[in-house]
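User: I'll paste a sequence; please echo it back and then give the predicted structure.

Assistant: Echoing your sequence first, then the prediction.
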Amino acid sequence: MSTARTDPAPTDAVIIPHYNDPDRLERCLRALMENDTTDTEIVVVDNASPVSLDEVKLAFPDVRFITETQKGAAHARNKGIAATTAPRLFFIDADCVPAPDWLTVGRAIANRADLVGGRVDVFDETPPPRSGAEAFEAVFAFNFRRYIEVQGFSGAGNLLTRRDVFDAIGGFINGISEDQEWTMRAVARGYSLVYEDRFRVKHPSRQDWSALRTKWRRMTQEAYQLNGTGGKARLRWAIRGLAMPASAMVHTPKVLASSRLNSTGETLRAIATLIRLRCTRMVWMLRQAAGGSI
């Protein structure tokens, strides 16, 4: 009497939240397939996108696709984790492109800490010259080393941890900067967080002011929730808001010294975008501090 073949349980799970971006999701999955995916389950959690993923599913039959109807990357990540039993958890966003050795490096450095955040390089999806938004992002976007080593948190666009850590800390919380809050919660509970430069993914830059403004509006809303909404917290938030224009001046030398910009025009556009964004954020933050919305 023969017995049915059973595949071994995966050691690693890659959790990918997705919403309405099938082309970038396909690019992410193709890059993942260049990795060593032995004993690895790749889980795409779709937030009930209005576009069909049928073609992507056909192209990647070994990838597991599930749906989370509650909107938000936090809900999607939580459902992805619940859908697998792998003891090691890799997080990446659907618009990111992992390096060909992303999983191999992750396995090699997993024991360095309870949580490991990696490098996120920015790349342009449009031909040069860069727009102001693209030039700004080339200088300022995704400084995970600073996030981790100075500010004590990591984003989940390139993050590695263990299931036992997640089980102890609890799930991501929607409506705030869920990856920042979750990693800070873990650190506050005594779990270690380190940066690893060899653990790399790439992320596309925002192409124009509208996309950049949308990103920072969301981040400002999430940061306000983390700040707190009581009287003292709102006063603190207002003071931070008033400092925004001055902070643009403080950060202008970083733009001028950046080797990532290719021309004087890109440098000037980056500075103009920096000033515009910081002044916009000041207005948003003062509205929030006064009890309004942005």
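The two ends are 68 Å apart (CA to CA). The chain has twelve helices and eight strands.
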